[in-house]
Every structure is written in structure tokens, then in C-alpha cells.
Specification:
The complex is a heterodimer of chains A (744) and B (156).
Chain A: E1 5-13, E2 19-27, E3 30-33, E4 47-49, E5 55-59, H1 68-80, E6 87-91, H2 108-135, E7 143-145, E8 148-151, E9 156-159, H3 160-167, H4 201-206, E10 221-227, E11 235-238, H5 240-244, E12 249-255, E13 267-272, H6 275-282, E14 287-289, H7 299-310, E15 316-321, H8 324-330, E16 333-341, E17 353-358, E18 364-368, H9 373-384, E19 391-395, H10 409-421, E20 425-428, H11 431-436, E21 444-452, E22 458-469, E23 492-502, H12 515-532, H13 537-545, H14 569-587, E24 598-607, E25 610-620, E26 626-636, H15 644-664, E27 669-670, E28 673-674, E29 693-697, H16 715-727
Parallel strand pairs in A: 5-6, 10-20, 18-19, 22-23, 26-29
Antiparallel strand pairs in A: 1-2, 2-3, 2-4, 4-5, 7-8, 8-9, 10-13, 11-14, 12-13, 15-23, 16-21, 17-18, 17-20, 21-22, 24-25, 25-26, 27-28
Chain B: E1 2-7, E2 10-15, H1 22-29, E3 48-51, E4 54-57, E5 70-72, H2 74-77, H3 84-91, H4 101-114, H5 120-127, H6 137-148
Parallel strand pairs in B: 1-5
Antiparallel strand pairs in B: 1-2, 3-4, 3-5
Helix pairs in contact in B: 3-6, 4-5
Classes of the chains: A alpha+beta (744), B alpha+beta (156).
Chain lengths: 744, 156
């Protein structure tokens, strides 16, 4: 049976005057999650309008720095037709009536752009109805402007504040009845498309407590949690008595934990009066960890095994079109290249933390900076044996997400420790905890062969992708998709894969997951093919995009979320050619001749519904030091940029993030443990190395989509291709800090 | 052992182990949560405060060494967010996640005290000890210039 869940609106009066417009869900016509909180409780509805004319909009999604707490309310305010200065934003808790409360996959914008506008439009319709009834005129004769309903024919007007109490008695319309053609014409937008400063900025610049690490609960103690550096090893022995006697320590105990690397793992919790006391006590903690089967895994072992696998046939065929081997044999020219990108860490600047309180009334209250608080609720309920309805989750602004906070390990740890300790507990990880216990971007090995014909066109492409299987030996990690470009753009295409081992290291999604590594390998090897064919790398890409093969059809599994190949095949070539041509013009591609040691590189990639092409201008000194001079970005994320200020920030941040990955970052493993543990060993971009970024959004007729991720992947190969242009050195292994770039 | 110093113009006396970093005294004893913890090894600058007017990483200064000193945190930079840097930061929408920004503003305000008209090179020098994982670097540079009344590539 298909489940038909639809959001409906319900209105109620606010004590003291005003309206509260909330949502509730019907599942197959039956109330699914009764929603409306008592009218005097602030949270639980989308929009509250009070007689003073202040419009309070609930930010329903987690804010991790992507700007969603500003951009989604902008969409409501636009259609409601109010002035932004009269809008206040409050953060929702997690749970009904809200749905889709996650930050991931660049999905919040495409999922909410129309529904948020419909909600605003419905609220406006109710205010108009209230005015029309008051005046005894037709609703169709009323107009709105800046929070005021006008009846121009009789020269009457009333503010939304004045109308809000009466509007609370109007039956809300079905928001879905406001089909896009009934919403505002974008040319009339007054808020959407304007540069709006983030709603929390005044608090941020004055240092107000705003983040998970700042949460304070009466009676709260502080915890650290020591886990095995070999993932999932059990505690064999710990000197708990010594630790318990240290200054400020209230409790120290072993957490049994399980074997799921994404869940509650074994460890030792220390609870103290201050965090620094807990952390100091940990330095005296001695734990003997039990033997663990993955304690022999290492980066060196992975590399050795990957090389052996590359020399043999793939374990699995992912896609075969035409005859790649035959085409390679008859190609005018062939090239080969083996590429490697390492494990990397998310390293959000706010280390993982969570505050939890097992209350006397049986409710577990949690304050969590999480990208997926709803999933966390499920895991906490299951692990602690608590009913989900007895868990309250406050969503707290996160000091960076980047995919790290899609996992909720810190939430289940805090909940468990708080329950055991019997007091409210703030668990805070050290930076070393954070970097050694990440869900890393998985490393990958791509072994390519390519062939071009006498005209320099790509006629054959082979890739043996060597990756890891999951912790239980199932599946293939790395996010490689059978439709990944250039599948369908070259007649003879062969993609196979082999797993190195069941990986004992936790892995997860990192900003543009899959794509952030795959784009490097594929777009660099396309560059190799372009040079083999004697073609300009940008023109070669345009020509390749024109080679779309209507048959064979795409293999199963097309999609828009991750890398996932080409997205919609009917749109891909058009939209990607569009951004590439604009990029060529904006960057002055091919118009500048640089001396040896400086060059430009180009790359494109589709991910998370976004089409991005980027050019990097880089210099390499004779002794091998790299400087990125400038980056040009052209992106197509549909018909509208909601907040250009936030949008440019996402692009600039993605570009600098990708450059830091390419230049410096890797996590290596030895003895089953992560080696790097802080920013001295895992550098981030710094201001003195951050190049200017020229950002341009090419507006198209397509769906409005998100920006947290898709601008990142192309910059990595564009930089490596620029280094080739500058030095003739082809980069096939990241990070660049491990490569000899000297050219004198 | 009670240790006394001045924070944001106010004399305070705290009871903490002398080797406790000033950062943790500010955050967990004095409840000044604007100063952030990022790395604990002086690499990220999220904990930047002013000690005797100089930008200082408070995770690297023990509270015993801060005794008698004059400390300013983000909460004490201005009474109401009206410091020119705070205003420029909001006007130009500098923060993304915002976690590092208190430290960034403290580093920038120390710079403007010694170089009221900084060049890009001055900014690079003064700000390169402060990490921003979201990489709002281009906006921060702009905002410092705006607060100082200078323009990008100012080479005065």
C-alpha cells in the first residue's frame, strides 16, 4: 500500500491575541502525528503572528553553517508578504509536527523551497480573509504589501498584527492548493534573491552561548569518553579506582558498548565537576583493550593489496558498454593511470558533543548539535531501551557539519553516560577524539585505461575501481555509480570493482560524498585523454558532452542525490555544457599564455543536483611549492538563488575546503588506529593560502536546488590539472603534500 | 588555590588548579562561553582572547600565568556588539557555522589596535593563526577592511 502523507495546516489563537499556524500530517487521511502544541507554547508551528505585527517563523531544520535557518524562513516571509525586519526566527525541536528535519545531501532547499512558500501563501490568504470579512468585501479585491492588507477601492487597510486574532478563526486553506503558478512571480520577490545576513549573526559576533558546547543545564557535570583507538575493541581492564580519586572526578565507569561502529562503542567514561578535570583525569587513565580482529589493518596494507587487485581482473562488473578492450587495441593513442585519494576527516571546528539528562519523570532530554537528530532519537531509544516518545531532542546550532554530524555516536554516548551517572551530563570530545573517531571519507583507487581516435575523440574508457567492502564484508564503499560520467558519453565503457577488505575503520559521508574523490580521479584522467588526443582540455570536455549515446540506456539506479553518475541524462549534457561555456568566457580560458610554473586547469562534476565547472589558476615554484592564484566557479542549481550572500559563502567555503583536501589532508592508519589526531598533522585552509573565488550562478529553468556540496568536487581535479599545465607533472595521488612537485 | 585577574574590566578570583588553561576557566568557571575550544594545542585560534591587549590563545596560557593580568574576551569587546568589526561582520554576513568567529574577531581587533589601516599582508599575518573550517576567509578580509575604512589590496 502506498503511504500518502500530506501536510495540512491548522490554526489556533494565541493567548493575548494573534494566530499560530501549525502543520499536521495525515497518513492515508488519518491523523498521523497530532501536532499543534498548546497555543501559548512557542514552538511547534511554522508561523506565529502577534498583534504587535511581529512574525515569528520556526526554523525547522538543523543549522550547521549552511544558512538554512535563514533561507527557509525567507521563503515563508516572501509569500506571506512581510518585511524581513519584522520577522523573528526560533529553532524548532526535533519531532512532530515537523518532517524532514535533517541537514544532508544538499536536500533541504529542493525539498522545502515550494512547501515553505506555500505555507507563507496560506497564512497570507487567511489574513486577507480576515480583512475581507471585517470589511464585508470580496477577498479578491484585497491586496497585501509589507505586512498590511489593503482594500484600495474603499481606502481601507489593516496590519497583519491587527488581523491576526481574527485570522485565528479562519479555516486554513490546503497549502498544496497554492500551485507554483499561484505563488509570487519571481520578478516581484522582495526577500528571496536578496543578500540577507544570517539570523544568528548578532549572537555569534558577541559570543552568546549558541552551540552545543555552550549548553548549560542546572546540576550538569562534564564527561569525557575514552574509546579504543582500534575501532570497537572492548575494555579488558581499567584503573578506575585511581581515576575516581582524582580532583573533581565524580564517577568513572566502563561502558560495555556494542560492535556497530556507528553506535555505542565500548569505552571508559569519566564524569567530573569541570571538563578540564575530566580531561586531566583521563591522562591518568590506563586502559587495557581486548584483542580486536582489525588491529592489523594499515594504510600500507591497503595500498599493497590495492596494487595486487589492480593487476588482476575486477571481482565485479559494474557496467559494460561496447567493447572497451577491442577499442583500446585499435585506438590511435592510449593512456593509463592509477589514481589514489586517501581517507580524510571531517574536522568540524566544534568537537563532537552532546548534553543529556535522564529526568526523574522518565523523560530523556537531549541537547544535540546533529545533522540527523531524528535518526539519533531512534538509536538512543534502541540502545538505552527507552520509548522514542520519552525522548526530547533540542536541536542546537552546530559548529560545522560537513557530514560528520549525520552520525549520532556522540548522542548515544551522552545519553548512556547521563543515565548511568544519574545527573545531567555534557559530553565533550577532545580534538584528538574527534579526529581519531571520525566516520572518514573512504579512500579509493581507480585504475584507468583510455583510448582516443585519430581525431582526438574519446573512444574507450576502462576503470577498475578498487575500494573497500563494509565492516561486515558486504557491499562496496566509495559511492561509485554505474552511470558515473563518462558512462553513456563513450561507446566503449567498462567499469569493474574489487574490494580490498572488510574495513575496520568507520566511514561515512563527507561533503559531496563519493563525488569528492571520484571527481578527482575521473576529471584528471579525462585531462590525460585530452592531452593524448592533442586537444584543449576544456574543448575536449565540450566535445565529449556532445557524444551522448542514446543507447545503451542508463543502468539502473540513476538518481540526483550523490555522485550517481549523470543525474538526468536528458538534462546533463545541456546543463553541463552551459556551465562550461560560461566558465570558459569568465575565466579567459585559452586567452592567456603563462610561463612555465603557472597554469590553468579545468574540471566539472555533477553531484547533489548541482552542475558545476571550475577553473583553477595555480603556480608551482621550481622547488615545488604550490600557490593557488584564483578559482573561477560556474554553477547551475536551477531557477533561483534564495540568498546570494549565503550561496556565495557555500561556494567559497566548498572551494577552499576542496583545495585544503587536495593540498594537505590525509588520515593514515597503522595497527588499526588513525595516526593523525590534530590540526598540526591534518591542516586546514588558512587565510594566507585562501585564493580569491569568482562565483557565478547560471540561472536556468530547472528546480531550485541546494549548495552545501556540489561546488566542492571539481576544484580538486581542476587544481591537479592546473599543476600539470604549470609543470607537466601529472598528479595521480593525493594529497599534494606527499608529492614531489619540483620542476627545475 | 584562588587566582585573581581581571576579565572584561572586572576583577575575578577563581579556585582552580594552576595548570588549568585560561580557556577552561573562562568557559566553565566564569561562564564566558564566547571563547571556544577547537584543538587544545594552539593551532586553531578559536580560543583567542586579549591578554594585556595582545591576541593570545587561551588554551595555551595556564590560569596561574594569567594571575594579575587584564583579559578581554569577545563578551568584553563592546557592550552591545557595536565594535566596528562586529558591525562589519554582521553587515557582510561573515559567519557560516560561526564557531570560530569570536576568536577571529578578537584576532582582528588586536590587529586594528596596532595597525589601524592594515594591508592584505598585515591581515594575512595577523589572522593566519585562526582556522575557519567553513573558510569564510574572503569575507573576513573584506570585513576587516570595512571596519578599518580601507580597501582590499590596501598598501598604505
Amino acid at each position: 500500500m502506498n503511504v500518502d502523507r500530506r501536510a495540512f495546516l491548522r490554526v489556533s489563537a494565541v493567548a493575548g491575541g494573534g494566530m499560530l499556524l501549525g502543520t499536521y500530517l495525515l497518513e492515508n487521511g488519518v491523523a498521523f502525528a497530532e501536532t499543534l502544541v498548546p497555543a501559548d507554547a512557542a514552538l511547534g508551528a511554522f508561523v506565529r503572528i502577534t498583534p504587535d505585527g511581529i512574525v515569528t517563523i520556526i526554523g525547522k531544520n538543523p543549522e550547521i553553517g549552511q544558512g538554512i535557518k535563514t533561507s527557509l524562513p525567507m521563503c515563508i516571509a516572501e509569500e506571506l508578504d512581510v518585511e524581513w525586519k519584522n520577522v523573528r526566527i526560533e529553532q524548532a525541536d526535533q519531532g512532530a509536527p515537523f518532517t524532514g528535519q535533517s541537514a544532508g545531501g544538499s536536500g533541504a532547499t529542493p525539498g522545502n523551497y515550494i512547501p515553505m512558500r506555500q505555507t507563507g501563501r496560506a497564512a497570507r490568504a487567511m489574513l486577507i480573509a480576515a480583512a475581507a470579512q471585517t470589511w464585508g468585501v470580496a477577498e479578491s479585491e484585497c491586496t497585501t504589501e509589507a505586512g498590511v492588507v489593503h482594500h484600495r477601492a474603499s481606502n481601507r487597510k489593516a496590519t497583519y498584527g491587527e488581523l491576526s486574532t481574527k485570522a485565528a478563526s479562519i479555516t486554513p486553506p490546503d497549502p498544496a492548493s497554492f500551485t507554483p503558478d499561484k505563488l509570487k512571480d519571481p520578478k516581484d520577490f522582495k526577500i528571496i534573491g536578496k543578500r540577507i545576513s544570517g539570523v544568528d549573526n548578532p549572537k555569534i559576533v558577541t559570543g552568546k552561548p549558541l552551540f552545543g558546547i555552550d549548553v548549560t543545564v542546572p546540576g550538569m557535570k562534564f564527561a569525557v569518553f575514552e574509546k579504543s583507538p582500534v575501532y570497537g575493541a572492548k575494555v579488558a581492564n581499567a584503573n578506575l579506582e585511581v581515576v575516581k580519586a582524582l580532583p573533581g572526578v565524580r564517577n568513572a565507569f566502563v561502558v560495555e558498548g556494542g560492535t556497530n561502529l556507528a553506535g555505542l562503542l565500548p569505552g571508559v567514561a569519566i564524569v567530573a565537576d569541570t571538563w578540564y578535570q575530566a580531561e586531566s583525569a583521563r591522562r591518568k587513565l590506563v586502559v587495557q583493550w581486548a584483542e580486536h580482529p582489525t588491529s592489523q589493518q594499515s594504510s600500507a596494507m591497503f595500498a599493497t593489496r590495492a596494487a595486487e587487485l589492480a593487476a588482476s581482473a575486477p571481482a565485479t562488473s559494474m557496467r559494460k558498454d561496447g567493447d572497451a578492450d577491442g577499442a583500446l587495441a585499435s585506438a590511435a593513442k592510449t593512456v593509463e593511470g592509477s589514481y589514489f585519494y586517501p581517507f580524510i576527516s571531517h574536522a568540524p571546528l566544534e568537537p563532537q558533543n552532546c548534553t543529556a539528562h535522564m529526568r526523574a519523570d522518565g523523560k530523556l532530554e537531549i541537547w544535540a548539535p546533529s545533522q540527523t537528530p531524528g535518526s539519533g532519537r531512534g538509536m538512543v531509544a534502541q540502545t538505552l531501551g527507552i520509548d522514542q516518545t520519552n525522548i526530547i531532542i533540542h536541536m542546537i546550532r552546530a559548529g560545522g557539519g560537513f557530514g560528520r554530524r549525520l552520525s549520532n555516536d556522540y548522542m548515544v554516548e551522552a545519553a548512556w553516560i547521563a543515565k548511568e551517572a544519574g545527573v545531567p551530563v555534557k559530553l565533550l570530545w577532545s580534538r584528538e577524539d574527534d579526529m581519531r573517531h571520525d566516520f572518514y571519507r573512504v579512500a579509493g583507487f581507480h585504475n584507468f585505461k583510455g583510448g582516443v581516435d585519430a581525431n582526438g575523440a574519446l573512444v574507450a574508457w576502462k576503470n577498475h575501481f578498487v575500494t573497500f567492502s563494509g565492516p561486515t564484508g558486504q557491499g562496496l564503499q566509495g559511492g561509485m555509480n554505474a552511470n558515473e560520467f563518462p558512462a553513456r558519453y563513450v561507446r566503449n565503457y567498462d567499469l569493474g570493482a574489487s574490494p580490498i577488505a572488510a574495513l575496520g575503520v568507520p566511514t561515512g559521508a563527507l561533503r559531496a560524498p563519493g563525488s569528492n574523490g571520484i571527481a578527482f580521479a575521473i576529471q584528471c584522467f579525462i585531462d590525460e585523454c585530452a592531452h593524448a588526443g592533442g586537444k584543449d582540455p576544456l574543448q575536449f570536455r565540450l566535445d565529449l558532452l556532445a557524444q551522448f549515446q542514446a543507447d545503451p540506456p542508463p543502468a539502473a539506479g540513476t538518481g540526483g542525490r550523490g555522485g550517481q553518475g549523470g543525474g538526468n541524462p536528458a538534462e546533463f549534457a545541456t546543463r553541463m555544457r552551459g556551465v562550461l561555456e560560461t566558465l570558459r568566457d569568465r575565466s579567459g580560458w585559452g586567452k592567456t599564455t603563462h610561463p612555465r610554473g603557472r597554469g590553468m586547469g579545468v574540471a566539472f562534476h555533477f553531484s547533489h543536483r548541482g552542475y558545476f565547472a571550475e577553473v583553477v589558476d595555480a603556480s608551482v615554484t621550481r622547488d615545488g611549492r604550490v600557490t593557488v592564484n584564483k578559482v573561477w566557479v560556474v554553477g547551475d542549481i536551477g531557477a533561483q538563488i534564495i540568498n546570494p550572500s549565503g550561496a556565495e559563502q557555500q561556494v567559497e567555503g566548498s572551494v577552499h575546503d576542496g583545495l585544503a583536501q587536495a593540498l594537505y589532508q590525509q588520515i593514515t592508519f597503522a595497527g588499526g588506529k588513525a595516526v593523525e589526531s590534530n590540526f598540526d598533522e591534518f591542516p586546514l585552509m588558512r587565510i594566507n593560502n585562501a585564493p580569491p573565488v569568482d562565483t557565478f550562478f547560471k540561472l536556468t529553468e530547472y528546480q531550485v536546488t541546494g549548495l552545501g556540496e556540489p561546488a566542492l568536487p571539481p576544484v580538486v581535479p581542476a587544481l591537479c590539472n592546473a599543476i600539470f599545465a604549470a609543470t607537466g607533472k601529472r598528479i595521480r595521488t593525493l594529497p599534494l603534500s606527499t608529492q614531489d612537485l619540483r620542476w627545475s | 588555590m584562588a587566582i585573581s585577574f581581571k576579565v572584561n574590566g572586572r576583577s575575578v578570583s577563581v579556585d582552580a588548579a594552576g595548570d588549568t588553561p585560561l580557556l577552561w576557566v573562562l568557559r566553565d568557571i566564569l561562564d564566558l562561553k564566547g571563547t571556544k575550544f577547537g584543538c587544545g594545542i594552539g593551532e586553531c585560534g578559536a580560543c583567542t582572547v586579549h591578554v594585556k591587549g595582545v591576541a593570545t590563545k587561551s588554551c595555551q596560557l595556564t590560569v596561574s600565568r594569567a594571575a594579575g593580568m587584564d583579559v578581554t574576551t569577545i563578551e568584553g569587546l563592546s557592550a552591545d556588539g557595536s565594535h566596528p568589526l562586529q558591525k562589519a561582520w554582521v553587515e557582510l554576513d561573515v559567519p557560516q557555522c560561526g564557531y570560530c568567529q569570536a576568536g577571529q574577531i578578537m584576532a582582528a581587533s588586536a590587529l586594528l589596535k596596532t595597525k589601524p589601516k592594515p594591508t592584505d599582508a598585515d591581515i594575512d599575518m595577523a589572522m593566519s593563526g585562526n582556522l575557519c573550517r567553513c573558510a569564510t576567509y574572503l569575507r573576513m578580509r573584506q570585513a576587516i577592511h570595512r571596519a578599518a575604512g580601507t580597501s582590499a589590496n590596501n598598501n598604505e
